Amino acid sequence: MASPRLLRTALLTALSGVLLASAAIGPAQAETPRAPTPRAVTFSDDFNGPAGSAVDSSKWQTETGDNVNNNERQYYTSGNKNAALDGQGNLVITARRENPANYQCWYGTCQYTSARLNTSGKFTAQYGRVEARMKVPRGQGMWPAFWMLGTPVDWPASGEIDIMENVGFEPSSVYGTIHGPGYSGSGSIGARYTLPNGQAFADGFHTFAVDWAPDSITWSVDGNVYQRRTPADLGGRQWVFNKPFFLILNLAVGGFWPGDPDSSTVFPQQLVVDRVSVTTGDTALGGAIKGLGGKCADVAGANPANGTPVQLYDCNGSAAQQWTAASDGTLRALGKCLDATGNGTADGTPAQLWDCTGGPNQKWTVSGARDIVNPQADKCLDVTGNSPANGSRLQLWTCTGGANQKWTVG
């Protein structure tokens, strides 16, 4: 079923230092590969199918038309004209300098064609890990994006989460951004991630993700966290991200932010998508939480009393080290919740066991970079003093990327 064209008005500027606020998070750390933790898959597309076939219409719909609001130059076409499977497990969105059907754009006869897909009316996500593995195009004027819009769409009041945007004149950088009422377009809130040593994103595949929980969104590239946003970042403005959003993949050509293609831009250009998935953390834990020195998060003395310290201890498989993640964002052992003492948010706030109250001091999110974060405090679960000794107390601390804040769960 065709839907109205969803026009973005993200009037971004190339001066990203002015536009995008710096992220309140420690430096990105390279992660050691590990076995994936079991997660509940709510949406997945690996784009398997014969070469030249269109995307699965039960999962995606194709938008058509132009976009005057961003000054984009492309005409989005239907079917498999500019979005097709390659027969090797990829979706290929192709931007071409052409106009085979005399398409008309806001500026006159269209100069380019491309494609834009969304899951509106077919799938919405609310929380979880939303990720795509893809290879972006290259060249001046290219603007690939993987993003989400809140439902029902009433932009910017309904919200927008940009998981990945790249503009061709910055081949080594991508951006993650949120838009909402009072912080949209050039006033949006986000950050940039840049590859080291002048590498370009167009040179290979990369995984772009957000870990999304109540009152928290965390962005990562290839498992490296580079930004976390909570309501505290909005200066009293409304957080509109605790509701369903649908997914969008597109490749725009030109626009206010990337600028138009020039004589250096080679066509066709392609956004190659290997997979898209949405998974929830409800089953992410189901056992030990292992941290510094290979030791476990442990309820001291296996004591279920309120106020019992949570500490680091040799892993022994006891009930005091068996943690589960509930759908409300809590981490539970011995029938009670991991709790930031006294509803504290300061560095050094001890972690303890307490009756589950639903309070923000008992909400946790597990990021793809192996941080366990309390969104209210925007701080990480930390081993005090970086000590692997038995009995070292767990606490809240500003996220640094250190080994004493890294956890393997399940």
UniProtKB/TrEMBL annotation:
GO MF annotation terms: hydrolase activity, hydrolyzing O-glycosyl compounds
SUPFAM superfamilies: Concanavalin A-like lectins/glucanases, Ricin B-like lectins
Keywords tagged on the record: Hydrolase, Signal
InterPro entries per record: Beta-glucanase-like, ConA-like_dom_sf, Glycosyl_Hydrlase_16, Ricin_B-like_lectins, Ricin_B_lectin
GO biological process: carbohydrate metabolic process
GH16 domain boundaries: 30-284
Keyword ATP-binding applies: no
Family, per entry: Belongs to the glycosyl hydrolase 16 family.
Protein name: Secreted hydrolase
